[in-house]
Amino acid sequence: MANDIFILTESELRKAVRLDMEAIDVVEQAFAALGTGKVIMPPILSMAIPEANGEVDVKTAYIPGFDGFAIKVSPGFFDNPKLGLPSLNGLMILFSARTGLVEALLLDNGYLTDVRTAAAGAVAARHLAPATVQTAGVMGTGVQARLQIAAAHLVRPFSRVLVWGRDARKAQSCARDLAANLGIEAHAEADPARLVAESQLVVTTTPAEEPILKAEWLHPGLHITAMGSDQEGKNEIDPKAIAAVDLYVADRASQCEKLGELRTAIAAGQWKGGQPRELGAIVQGQPGRTDEAQITLCDLTGTGAQDTAIATHALSAARAAGAGRVIES
Amino acid sequence: MANDIFILTESELRKAVRLDMEAIDVVEQAFAALGTGKVIMPPILSMAIPEANGEVDVKTAYIPGFDGFAIKVSPGFFDNPKLGLPSLNGLMILFSARTGLVEALLLDNGYLTDVRTAAAGAVAARHLAPATVQTAGVMGTGVQARLQIAAAHLVRPFSRVLVWGRDARKAQSCARDLAANLGIEAHAEADPARLVAESQLVVTTTPAEEPILKAEWLHPGLHITAMGSDQEGKNEIDPKAIAAVDLYVADRASQCEKLGELRTAIAAGQWKGGQPRELGAIVQGQPGRTDEAQITLCDLTGTGAQDTAIATHALSAARAAGAGRVIES
């Protein structure tokens, strides 16, 4: 049985898919679909390989109305930097939702995950941040710190960004990059309490295992997107802050209670909110922020639905650009 | 980060990897590793897509001592034959077990699964069938009926094979193929009771949801390999037969109790055996068949360890044959 498979490499995907409003909109569609309850999204398959200080996660989701579904494989091997290799890699495979045949291999080394993760932050900001954001703050100084702020800036065009990190030089470097890329004022801020005090939108992007954002720093008119915790053992937000916000929103409740900030809040006895509201339900019209003074928080663990959405978008963008090659399997 | 990825198509894999003693031995190594308890094998990720009468399964396993680990994606879309397409497809991705980088994409459309599944039947026959098998019987008339008998014949060179199927013409066609391929006597047998009575080794290879092999047909000196049931709802073997055999062996107990014949036996209250023995433990030296008159049964649901073993073997065989192409991701 001959079947044509489209193969795209990381460099081709970087050219064809950008973190732009189109990417944000396609990821918002994924959340809208999640909000209908009709998405089929099994639990994440996860395998740790302690001998190699590695792990691998597999995510997937079927979204009615999308022609394909993606299966994403994300290895993280944390001794790789010693070998001069990146810790995170991986690929997405796009299958026809009608026949199950492989349609495309997206050899993105994690690039599409970076884009869809940042795009989810923008969806959260679009629906939950105050209408006017003058200053945004980011905790963390890596790839997602840069991308989350770039994505949020598309939906809330703030004029200033503050960057906090444990390593002051990395925070300065991140601020310089953001200033250059977004054409806005950007500073490193050594005091995380001051960063939160001066921001209307804060994104946490670290692999922290102890809270880096304290409940006593919350203030009216603040939105927080916490995207760092995607595994048991990670925790960025003080459990008391989860209890104190006016509205806590999960990307997927069943994932957040195991892998997100909600997990720690439940473990600390701080969660009294019952079944948490999901971002998809808010995209579908359930109440999000209802006044400018509220404090909101969105807990992002990363969903297979986002992967299916970005993979579908990537294939169509790459085809339109004439990129990639076909092999007959 | 440039990373060279080796790509192999189904036709290249069919040339490089055969169902031979080498494939059986590599799959036996996977079971031996499972028997040490050191294999890391997470539960199968499974997603049903009822709208398309489809499903997709993802399996993986890390085996200490193997350079790579495979992630296998197996879609089954059961309306495909109406479109002139095969129901089963899929691919394997081989990752470095040291860095998590993608090493090879094996676009096998399920071929390597066919081989590793039949090879597991041969491992079961090698350790559990009577030393001398004159007649083998197979229930079912599809690809696995042919491959299981071919694999079993490598380890127990019987001179006669009987084939039963619901469709007599398919049984005749399967028997003709087996006679031609193995150079032995082969007949269709319309009466499954007689097939079992005349065989020392029986392999069941059907998607049956009601038992096709009855407890009252068991006889001394019989070994049964049941490989059809790999999902809830499938059942080939009378639960009373599971209770009646001298030795029941699971490929993986945790899978068989959910997906294999063991599931139905437990549900029917027929399982009194406690923690079942696993094939890997027998490969490692725990008792299997201890006399020729015993009745043994091996329940195969298919393990990620077999996938890692066959994918590693396939890459090395294809490289040795100079097959495939490399792309830089």
TrEMBL record, chains A, B:
Matches recorded under Gene3D superfamilies: NAD(P)-binding Rossmann-like Domain (3.40.50.720), ornithine cyclodeaminase, domain 1 (3.30.1780.10)
Superkingdom of the source species: Bacteria
InterPro entries: Ectoine_EutC, NAD(P)-bd_dom_sf, ODC_Mu_crystall, ODC_N
Stored Pfam families: OCD_Mu_crystall
Family, as annotated: Belongs to the ornithine cyclodeaminase/mu-crystallin family.
Protein name as catalogued: Cyclodeaminase
